[in-house]
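Many introductory courses stop at the sequence. We go one step further.
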Amino acid sequence: MSSMAEGSDGSEKVDQYLSGVPEPQRSTLERLRSGLRRLLPHADEAIRYGMPALTLQGKAVAGYASFADHCGYYPMSGDVIAAAGDAVAGYEVSKGGLQFPVDRPLPMALVRRLVTLRLAELAAVTDGVRYEFFADGQLKATGRMKGGELDGSWKWYRKDGSLLRTGRFADGEQVGRWTTYDRVGEISRVTRF
């Protein structure tokens, strides 16, 4: 489901970014990168806003950067840091990110919390395309929302990435042909609404 072209090219660009970062920031950010890749193995790497980032379906989920006297973590949202509440106590924060020491990586429990909040935010779209993800970044469902209602074509996926079901909604109601697939992509059931 992810864009391998962006991922491989993006990984090279992230490597280039990190190669220009002095120590101890480089080692600290490389540990953060490794932790993020373990949390989100289905994500692509990219450079967004001049910094390394992980993306899912083209949406930035987590970014990080090096500065002279600190490192920064950016959830690519103005609301995630506030939603994290006490979890970010003890860090200097702004609406868009938090700062941490150049020689001490963020605890993975905090990174996991920030990623979880960002994934929930991506799934909370009420108008436009909604993406829902499993905790590891694998696409779970995608479709259009209109006025808070499912509207138009939707697809659901299994945790292994295989297509599970397709169907359509009109103003939140199931309509038309709904198809369920087995793990190898064969149609196992068709229902009409």
